[in-house]
């Protein structure tokens, strides 16, 4: 059984119809203090960042039918500039609420969480934003410092999803991408990391010998930090980690923090065995979630990882056949547990197409190997010939 908790509303809004306007094209009355007229000008999808993402979240939260979350990250007043799984789930609700104007013209039956031309046109109309009046998009926070030519600055973490009590290992790297040796002079600390959305900055104390470093072509110098949850615990949701090499630029990466103290009980619903899907067709991947009593409020922040694993019929005769080892296909990561995931069988996953064959769907809590469930039997992907 899917456990969904009804959470209290935080901000109220109403749909109103202005004189001379048909009921099919209402406008949204937003709470005081929120800019009403914002014209959306670009496509948005999972992973997008910027002020337009935050404005989209504000508009979705203004309607109870499409609210991202009632409390916590993504809720009214807690919108961010990152387009994550919860924003995608809310956008799907918006697309399906106005299906005839957004989905039907594109030949779609179900929302896909892509904020394209039709969804943008509809939301702009609801906001009373006419064509040809784009709104300037202010920078939500300082952008990464530019990197000089012939130099690469990167930042990475030891994994993508963490629990709120885990430490985070952060690696900031400087690489000489030119064909000649380069000398780097830091004039102080070699590197720092920060979490811009949380107003948190930490500087590594640098030894004197790091003041000047010569790197050969393609050579890399790296600094490793440990962000301790005891120093600054991160709330559930997405966070931008920024790594900076003094005098030479910055780079960003995004992590997810999952505030979940227990392992949920997951059950794959579809595909669950014997389905046959042709290449190029779309199918919802679905599951049910059960949380122990007292933990239902964790449902809104629960994220899942989805993958396909090759399936072989159980062996009943000896000797059993040998099968080549094939790496599972990652379909999606950090997907909201609230709604299903629409997957296209021709979709390129991890730069690999899922070939024709027999598979099972595996659903796991994001970043975890326990508490997973797989299809009861194999389903088949066939070439569309």
H and E string: EEHHHHEEEEEEEEEEEEEEEEEEEEE
**Number of domains in the coordinates?**
3
The amount of beta strand, in percent, is: 25-35%
Number of strands: 23
Let me know the average pLDDT.
76
| CATH architecture classification name of the largest domain | Sandwich
The CATH homologous superfamily of the largest domain is named Immunoglobulins
Radius of gyration: 24 Å
Backbone shape: globular
Secondary structure: helix percent = under 10%
Number of helices: 4
**Cα distance spanning the termini:** 38 Å
Structural class of the secondary elements?
mainly beta
Largest sheet: 6 strands, mixed
Quaternary class: single chain
Low-pLDDT regions: 1-35, 132-139
Under CATH, the topology of the largest domain is which?
Immunoglobulin-like
Which CATH class of the largest domain applies here?
Answer: Mainly Beta
């Amino acid at each position: 059984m899917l456990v969904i908790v009804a959470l209290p509303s935080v901000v109220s809004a109403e749909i109103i119809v202005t004189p001379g306007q048909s009921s099919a094209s209402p406008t949204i009355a937003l709470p005081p203090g929120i800019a009403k007229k914002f014209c959306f000008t670009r496509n948005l999808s999972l992973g997008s960042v910027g002020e337009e993402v935050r404005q989209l979240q504000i508009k979705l939260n203004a309607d109870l039918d499409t609210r991202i979350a009632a409390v916590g990250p993504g809720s009214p007043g807690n919108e961010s500039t990152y387009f994550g799984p919860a924003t995608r789930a809310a956008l799907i609700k918006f697309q399906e609420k106005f299906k005839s104007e957004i989905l039907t013209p594109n030949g779609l039956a179900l929302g896909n969480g892509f904020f394209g031309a039709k969804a943008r046109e509809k939301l702009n109309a609801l906001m009373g934003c006419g064509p040809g009046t784009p709104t300037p998009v202010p920078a939500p926070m300082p952008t990464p410092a530019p990197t000089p030519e012939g130099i690469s600055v990167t930042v990475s973490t030891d994994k993508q999803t963490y629990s709120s009590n885990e430490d985070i290992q952060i690696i900031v790297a400087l690489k000489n991408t030119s064909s000649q040796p380069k000398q780097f002079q830091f004039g102080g600390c070699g590197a720092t990391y920060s979490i811009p959305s949380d107003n948190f900055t930490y500087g590594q104390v640098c030894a004197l010998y790091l003041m000047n470093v010569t790197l050969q072509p393609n050579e890399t110098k790296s600094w490793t930090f440990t962000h301790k949850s005891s120093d600054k615990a991160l709330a559930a949701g997405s966070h931008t980690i920024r790594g900076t090499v003094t005098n030479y630029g910055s780079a960003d990466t995004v992590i997810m923090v999952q505030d979940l103290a227990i392992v949920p009980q997951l059950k794959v619903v579809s595909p669950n065995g014997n389905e046959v899907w042709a290449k190029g067709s779309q199918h919802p991947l679905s599951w049910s979630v059960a949380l122990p009593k007292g933990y239902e409020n964790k449902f809104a922040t629960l994220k899942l990882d989805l993958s396909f694993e090759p399936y072989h019929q159980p062996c009943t005769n000896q000797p059993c056949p040998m099968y080549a080892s094939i790496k599972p296909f990652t379909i999606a990561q950090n997907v909201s547990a609230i709604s299903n995931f629409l997957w296209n069988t021709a979709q390129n996953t991890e730069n690999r197409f899922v070939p024709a064959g027999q598979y099972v769907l595996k659903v796991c809590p994001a970043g975890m190997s326990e508490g997973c469930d797989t299809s009861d039997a194999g389903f088949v992907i066939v070439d569309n010939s």
